[in-house]
Amino acid sequence: MKMPVIKRLVETQTLESLVAAEEALLEEQTPAFEVEGEDEGEQLTHVFAAIFILNHMQDHGTDFKTALREYTAKVRVSIS
Hints:
The protein is mostly helical. The chain has one domain (3-78). The chain contains four helices and no strands. The protein has helices at 3-12, 15-26, 40-60, 64-79. Helix 1 packs across helix 3, helix 2 packs antiparallel against helix 3 (40-60) and helix 3 crosses helix 4. The chain is globular, with a radius of gyration of 12 Å. Pfam families: DUF6952.
């Protein structure tokens, strides 16, 4: 998971395009736009994180950094 890639997706893609990219990756297809990542798993992680962050920003009226911290906190909890 690379934060600069997630930030770039949040800044350049709409929620709708990210959801479409997530669906494409899950169906082993190529998304309509480039998603950086070493493999499809990492690309999917980047897209999923960007979707979570955009939703969090809209739902809670927060900025990118706050939403990113919330996402990484959830990841840490799921790992431990």
